[in-house]
Automatic annotation (TrEMBL):
First-level EC class: transferase
The entry's keywords: ATP-binding, Folate biosynthesis, Kinase, Nucleotide-binding, Transferase
Domain 7,8-dihydro-6-hydroxymethylpterin-pyrophosphokinase: 8-136
Superkingdom of origin organism: Bacteria
General function of this protein: Catalyzes the transfer of pyrophosphate from adenosine triphosphate (ATP) to 6-hydroxymethyl-7,8-dihydropterin, an enzymatic step in folate biosynthesis pathway.
Protein name, per record: 2-amino-4-hydroxy-6-hydroxymethyldihydropteridine pyrophosphokinase
InterPro entries recorded: Hppk, Hppk_sf
Alphabetized GO MF terms: 2-amino-4-hydroxy-6-hydroxymethyldihydropteridine diphosphokinase activity
Family that this chain belongs to: Belongs to the HPPK family.
Length: 157
């Protein structure tokens, strides 16, 4: 299988045995033949941001290589399938969750659909994302999207 696309995934959990949910999610991701885990950050405990009346989160970032034959919708469906398998319930907007797996970036793709925004809004709204990417030695991906976003909004072509 040819792997050629790099994606960064954000994992979070704030209900139950958070470490167990994170471990299970990483294991499930590693069993997908279309993905190859390249690197993972340390886990970081963070306060909830938008909906603050809930337990603290455990967060982590994975860098994965994705098969060139695996489309973004397939990747999203597979990750949501893992969330469902691990018992995620969508209780309320930005509410507590057993596991949350977001696609932060996929190559240099910038897109906004009803189902997927790339880069994910949390790249800029959640300071721990930048911190974890820095700790992984991957701040370049943050800088790339910052530059692309700047060019998109301020370009004078």
């Amino acid at each position: 299988m040819k792997y050629s696309n790099i994606a960064f995934l954000s994992l979070g959990s704030n209900i139950g045995d958070r470490h167990h949910f994170m471990d299970q999610a990483i294991w499930e991701i590693s069993t997908l033949p279309e993905l190859q885990k390249l690197k993972q950050s340390e886990r970081l405990e963070t306060a909830p941001l938008e909906n603050t009346n809930q337990p603290y989160f455990l967060n982590q970032i994975l860098k994965v290589m994705v098969s060139s034959a695996f489309t973004l919708p397939c990747l999203l469906d597979s990750l949501q399938g893992i969330e469902d398998k691990l018992g995620r319930k969508r209780r309320s907007w930005k509410g507590p969750r057993e596991i949350d797996i977001d696609i932060l970036t996929y190559e240099a793709v910038v897109m906004k659909t009803d189902f997927l925004h790339l880069p994910h809004h949390s790249m800029y709204s959640r300071p721990f994302i930048k911190q974890l990417l820095t700790d992984m030695g991957e701040i370049g991906v943050y800088a790339l999207y910052t530059e692309l976003n700047h060019e998109k909004h301020y370009s004078t072509v």
